[in-house]
Amino acid sequence: MHVVFVRGPTGSIVATVHRADGVSLQLPGYDRKHKVPHDLAHYATERALEMSGGVFGAIAGGGVFSNMRVVGGKPRYDAAARSKRLLDAHRQTLTMAELLAGVVHRAVEDGSPDQTPAMVREAWQSLGSGPFPWTDQHVEDAVRILAELTVEWEAQGAVRVTWPDHLAAELPASRGVKRGRRGRT
Fold this sequence. Notes:
The chain has 6 helices and 5 strands, in the order βββααβααααβ. It is of the alpha+beta class. The radius of gyration is 18 Å and the shape is globular.
């Protein structure tokens, strides 16, 4: 999946997502006050931590958030139902992605990456269960990726990235009525 971040005409950030299924969507950002686009922080964090159930993994898997709009291609006939099922199934990971991307975003925005691994661990503890699933290197990679993308963003006013296919969120099986022949008595 290819994602292009650009500054929109009103100064807000717009990410245009080109999914593998041929559908293109726009994801508006609402962060004119930050030098670093928040959705770019999501990309860097979710990519470095390999969070397939985060924002970009969910979009790659067929999820469409309520603030998104289709700008190209033809969605499947059941796209809305599939999206709802996928987003519902990954709700916890989406919440975690929001929290962790916020920590990484703040670190790059403020220029204070030194405490980021400890802050990410603390954020994890507020919502996660079990042992912390990443190393400090994973977190440092998220900060490094976002810092590099920020330099590109400031220089060009646009960033093009690719979301790996293996990090697309899994669509859970449908729990609908099973169709088929019934046994006769």
